[in-house]
Amino acid sequence: MSQTRKPSQTVAVLGTGKIGEALLSGMIRGGWAPADLLVTTRRQERADELRTRYGVEPLTNAEAAKRADILILACKPQDMERLLDELAPHITTERLVISAAAGITTSFIEERLTAGTPVIRVMPNTPVLVDEGMSVISGGSHATAAHLTHAEDIFGAVGKTLRVPETQQDACTALSGSGPAYFYFLVEAMTDAGILLGLPRDKAHDLIVQAAIGAAVMLRDSGEHPVKLRENVTSPAGTTINAIRELENHGVRAALIAALEAARDRSRELASGNSG
C-alpha cells in the first residue's frame, strides 16, 4: 500500500457504499483528519452510522459540492446523470471531480459541469475493501499532473494505483476490475476438484487459498517472469506437467484470452451507453 499524505483540501465522498466507505476508512488511516472529510448518503441511518464510526460530517450532495475541494463520485453508474444534475449548479472549475463509477467517461461528466472543470476517472477493484486494491487512474481534458497526484494519494490509501490513458480503461476493466472474479472462479473450481480427489471442502479451500496468496507474493516480490516461476514447480514427468498438459488440451489459455476480450468489449458497450 502506498504512503499517503494529509492534504490541505476538503474531500467529499458522494454515495458512501462499500467502496466509498473503504476509501473513507483508508484516508483516515492514511492521515486525513475526519474534519476534512464529508460524506453523502441516501438514508439517514447510514449517515448516522458513518458519523459515529468515523467522526465525519454527513451532508446533502449540494452542500458537499459547495464546501469540498475534491468530490469523489462513488455512486452507481445509472445514478450518475441525476447526481451531476444536482451538483452542476454548485461546482466551479476550482473543484476536482473524481469519478469511481464504472463505465462513466470523463467527457460524459465534463459535458454536464462548468466548462474547464477538472475530472478524473478511477476504476478501483473490490480488494480496496481489504487495502489491496488496484485503482486505475485517467485524467480528463482539464486534469493536471497535480490533480492526478491528488487522486493517487486518495486511492493509494487502499492499495496500488496505476495511471493510464483513458483509451486503455476498458482493457484495464477486463483485467483488473473484473480480475478478482476470475480468481474466485478458479478457486471454486479447484475446491471442487479437491473434493473429487477426496479432501474435505474446508481443507481443500485452505490449501488453495494459501497457494494463491503465496504465488501472488512470489510474483510481486521475486521479479521473476511467471513462466520461470511455473518452470520451477514443473519437474520432468512430474505431477505439475501432467496437469498443465490437460489445461492446454482443454484450451484454458485460449479461453482466458477470449473471456478477457469479451469483458473488454462489454466495458466499451457500457461506456457508450448500451446497457442492453
State the gist of this model.
This protein is α/β, with parallel strands linked by helices and about 280 residues long. It contains twelve helices and eight strands.
Give an overview in words.
GO terms for molecular function: pyrroline-5-carboxylate reductase activity. Pathway: Amino-acid biosynthesis; L-proline biosynthesis; L-proline from L-glutamate 5-semialdehyde: step 1/1. The two termini are 37 Å apart. The protein folds into two domains: 11-164, Rossmann fold (3-Layer(aba) Sandwich); 172-272, ProC C-terminal domain-like (ProC C-terminal domain-like fold, Orthogonal Bundle), CATH 1.10.3730.10. Strands 3-2-1-4-5-6-7-8 form an eight-stranded mixed sheet, sandwiched between helices. Helix content is 51%, strand content 13%. It has 276 residues and is of the alpha/beta class. The protein is elongated.
